[in-house]
Amino acid sequence: MAKAEASVDELVGMIERGDLQLPEMQRQYVWQSTRVRDLLDSLYRGYPSGAILLWETDEDVPIRNFATTQQRSPYQSTRLLLDGQQRLTALSAVIRGKAVSVRGRQRPIELLFNLEHPDTLVVVTEVYEDNDEDLIEDETDSTEDELQHRFDKMTFVVATHKLERLPHWVKVTDVFKTDEDAPFLARAGIEMISDPRYTKYSQRLA
Fold it and tell me: Is 90 in contact with 109 (CB distance < 8 Å)?
């Protein structure tokens, strides 16, 4: 297999331009916001996040729409995303600040980045998700200060109105809009491995 490279931003651009299509056999976008938060945290820390598999073909393959908006590609050949739809759709929505279509509804993925996050990873136990807000295991028995202390140990959280008002929490989408505050993409490299029929992207530390 030959190797090539592509950045996360380039892969997201392929989706936007319609250069990357989704075969009909793929399921719909189903990720909750907390899964997207965990993906960004992994990329930010340089952790592996799995492989992305593409298939380039001239055949007329039935396709379905991505959960994010796409342009119509002028190219005859089609690159089909065989594995990695949830991750690339989530990254596209966060980086471009666009809503995703989930069960027929348009929903934004709103995440916050903690400018004062600890240097080391701190595990904060969560049990379930409700209304796309992070909930802590013993939330009902915790004081407001205790909950805030737990959030402050995290690097990324699903946005809440209260946290948005605090100066050390910034919207992830806003961070990507500025060149000087975009270390996320620089730290997340993608390594591409290809053969005559398949193209496989696997994450590599930048």
Answer: yes
**pLDDT top residue among 175 and 121:** 175
Instruction: Give the percent of the chain with pLDDT over 90.
Output: 17
> d(Cα 189, Cα 9) in Å, to the nearest integer?
10
Rg of the chain, C-alpha, whole Å: 18
Instruction: Round to whole Å and give the CA distance between 38 and 111.
Output: 11
Total residues found in the chain within this entry: 206
- Count of structural domains within the chain: 1
Q: Supply the range of the domain harboring residue 103.
A: 2-205
pLDDT for residue 122: 64
Phi and psi (nearest 5°) for 167? -65, -25
| Predicted TM-score of the model (pTM) | 0.72
Question: Strand 20-23 relative to strand 78-83: parallel, antiparallel, unpaired?
Answer: parallel
User: What average pLDDT does this structure show over 105-113?
Assistant: 91
How many whole angstroms separate alpha carbon 46 and alpha carbon 200? 19
Q: How confident is the model at residue 188 (pLDDT cuts 50, 70, 90)?
A: very low
User: Mean pLDDT over residues 159-176, rounded?
Assistant: 87
